[in-house]
Every structure is written in C-alpha cells, then in structure tokens.
Design goal:
Layout lengths: L4 E6 L4 E8 L4 E8 L5 H5 L7 E5 L3 E2 L17 E3 L2 E2 L12 H8 L2 E4 L3 H11 L2 E6 L7 H5 L5 H5 L5 E4 L4 E6 L5 H8 L3 E6 L5 H5 L5 E4 L10 H10 L5 E4 L1 H9 L3 E18 L5 E13 L8 E6 L5 E6 L4 E4 L14 H12 L5
Parallel strand pairs: 3-4, 4-6, 5-7, 6-8, 11-12, 11-13, 13-14, 14-19
Antiparallel strand pairs: 1-2, 1-9, 2-8, 3-9, 10-12, 15-16, 15-17, 17-18, 18-19
Length: about 350
C-alpha cells in the first residue's frame, strides 16, 4: 500500500499535508463536507457528488468495509478525505476495504488530515475549490478556474432502463443522477419504474404513458439545465409530479422561481425540516449546495417545509397542477426514514387524481 505524503491545497491558499490511499494521481474539485456517521458507500456512489472532493466529518471511516449499498453503478466523487481510515473492517456483509474499493474505481483518497479544522474553514469561508497533488502547488490558476459543468448529462442514464413489475403503476423516473433507493421506494409501493435519460423531451416522456413523474436528485448548478427546465414547463399539469433535491430546484425554475448557491450547503443525515401543515419537525438526509428562493414562487405554489436551522426552503406544493417537491431525501439510505410518507402521498395523488391542497 502506498501511504506517501500528499498535499491538499485550498483556493484560499491554505495547505494541508496528509497520506494517500485509494488511487494514484492528482485532481481538482469543489471541496464540500458531509456529516453522516454511516453510509459512506452511499455517499461515494451518490451522483450528486459529481465534481466534488468530499470531506467526511466523522473521524473513522471504513470500519464496516465495503458493503453492497451502492446508490449507483460507481463512485462519483472526485476525491475523498477522511481523518482516519480502517484497514481491518469487521462486518458480515463486508466485501473488501475502502482502500481497495477506491483503487478499483480510480478515486483518490487522503487520510491523516485534521478534518475538523478543514470543515471549519469551509463553514466559515464557504465552499471553495481545492486540489490534491503529489507536490506542493504554487500556481493557483487551475484551482481558481475549476467549475462543475455538464454534471447532469454526465451522470444520467444514456437509455431507458426498467425496474419492477411491468403490471405495476407506471412511473417515469427522470434521471438527473438518481439514487437507487428512490426507485426501490417506488417499487416497494407496487410501481413499475421507467428511468429515462436527462436528455428526454416532454413528448418522449408522455409517449411512455406514465401515471406519474418522479424528478430525481442530481449534481451541479440547476440553472445549467436549460433544456430540462423548458421541458418541465410542458409537463406541468399533464400528470402527477413528485420532485426530490435537484428535481425540486428544477421544477421551481420551471415555475418561474429562482435558485442561489448556498455558503456551504446541507450534506448529512441530521437536517431538521419543519412541516408547515402539521408543525412537526422531521429529521432528514440531504445533499445539496443550492437552494430555492421561496419568495420567488409567491403566488405560484405553497411553501410546505423549511429548514429548522437556517430557515431555507425545503419543500413546495403546487396545488393547481398536482405537483409537490422537497429539497431533502425521503428515501434516505443510509439515513433517517422520517419522511418516507411522501412517497405514499405521491401514490395517493396518482390514485385520486386530485390536487395537493
């Protein structure tokens, strides 16, 4: 195993020295942190992390090894930073070590870095670019110029994929970087999922004769997806719609709303969201760096959830067109399942054909 020194250089000029594990090489990406204590395999394989260097705030990672809990076909993170890695995992489902897994998929890892200090920097200064390199970096040009682009098209399926019982309720799952557990949650409710590429048009989706449309999570700046937003405008009101994460943001943009980049986003399994209808607070799993500006949708829909920590928009209902969206992940895996009832709400909307008022 190569445990050679490796350098992490932040866009603000701060530099950390750690030790390499996983794949060899250098990389530039957007530096973010996630607070999840478990679910590191799900984090690595979540397409929403495309283009990002992920810091795990929990200090020990890899203690249960690599388990078959992947949310997509491969890891999408640009690189992975942990305080301490475990090379002797213990779990009856273990299929190997984290180091072996990262090597297999060409993902660069660093351990031995003070992740608390690193996370504090991101919290105070905000998300910034960073580079991992074998030698100290002096020229900051590549770091400063880095942008996450063409994210959705990169991670999306290239052709239609089918899941579940063909005799079940037909749901078009628009793949912007879909996590497997979204599809699993729908299948558990008797659905037949048709996962369609992000490049599909409104006409192509309607030609599949779905009973409902699922708008999935995904990476990058939502405003980059001009074609998807335009097609969403054509689909609004044509069939029941449920949006999650990026799907929530894209639908808001299609309805005339606005989004903005957050200082450091919400990434982890302990975000409290308050439901306006019943006053209850649910603990949710989240992974996003952009937010919907709720005031930009005034008169168009109804705010349904907000973040109990910072007041940001966490959900919107659109009563007139049988659609609702949430910023958080009700299908969380790993993570809390407090909001799983939202899938039941989607099923009810389809069955009754009524609006969400």
């Amino acid at each position: 195993m190569n445990n050679g020194k490796v350098y992490l250089t932040l866009q603000n000029g701060k530099q950390f020295v750690g030790y390499r594990f996983g794949a060899e090489g250098d990389v530039v990406g957007e530096l973010v942190f996630t607070t999840g204590m478990t679910g590191y395999i799900e984090t690595l394989t979540d397409p929403s992390y495309y283009g990002q260097i992920v810091i795990q705030t929990f200090p020990l990672i890899g203690n249960y090894g690599v388990t078959p809990d992947n949310e997509s076909k491969k890891p999408w993170v640009s690189a992975y930073i942990v305080r301490e890695k475990c090379d002797t995992p213990s779990n009856f489902r273990c299929e190997g070590t984290l180091d072996e897994y990262l090597k297999q998929y060409g993902v660069i890892g660093i351990y031995g870095i003070d992740t608390r200090e690193l996370t504090k920097i991101v919290r105070e200064a905000g998300v910034m670019n960073a580079a991992i390199s074998s030698k100290p970096i002096k020229d900051m040009t590549e770091i400063n110029n880095y942008r996450v682009v063409n994210a959705v098209k990169t991670v999306s399926a290239k052709e239609v994929e089918y899941f579940g019982d063909p005799n079940g309720r037909k749901i078009a799952v628009w793949d912007f970087g879909a996590k497997k557990n979204i599809i699993r949650s729908l299948i558990n409710r008797g659905c037949y999922c048709m996962k369609v590429p992000s490049t599909y048009t409104a006409e192509e989706i309607l030609a599949l004769n779905p009973e409902g449309l699922m708008l999935c999570n995904g990476p990058g700046d939502p405003t980059e997806n001009v074609e998807i937003i335009e097609n969403l405008r054509k689909l609004a009101g044509k069939l029941p719609i449920f949006g999650i994460c990026l799907g929530h943001q894209l639908f808001a943009l299609a309805m005339g709303g606005k989004t903005k980049k957050m200082k450091y986003g919400h990434r982890g399994a302990n975000q409290p969201v308050k439901c306006i209808a019943n006053g209850r607070v649910y603990i949710s799993s989240q992974n996003h760096g952009y937010e919907v500006i709720s005031s930009s949708l005034e008169g168009v829909g109804q705010l349904s959830f907000y973040n109990a920590n910072d007041g940001t928009c966490e959900g919107f209902d659109y009563p007139d067109i049988n659609a609702f969206t949430v910023q958080f992940h009700p299908e969380a895996c790993g993570g809390p399942h407090d909001a799983g009832f939202l899938f039941d709400k989607f099923m009810k909307n389809i069955t009754e054909g009524k609006f969400n008022a």
